[in-house]
Write a structure and sequence with these properties.
1 helix; mainly alpha; 40 residues; transmembrane; transmembrane helix
Length: 40
């Protein structure tokens, strides 16, 4: 039971990290696109 709970906690933590990274990358991509549009 303890190991199962630990695995679930790790999966949730990794999931949150992945979501954070995806959001950060998405914002970065949008910023880059806007910057390029500004130059062009």
């Amino acid at each position: 039971m303890a190991l199962g709970k630990l695995n679930v906690s790790l999966l949730l933590a990794l999931g949150k990290l992945n979501v954070s990274l995806l959001l950060a990358l998405g914002k970065l991509n949008v910023s880059l696109l806007l910057a390029l549009d500004g130059f062009l």
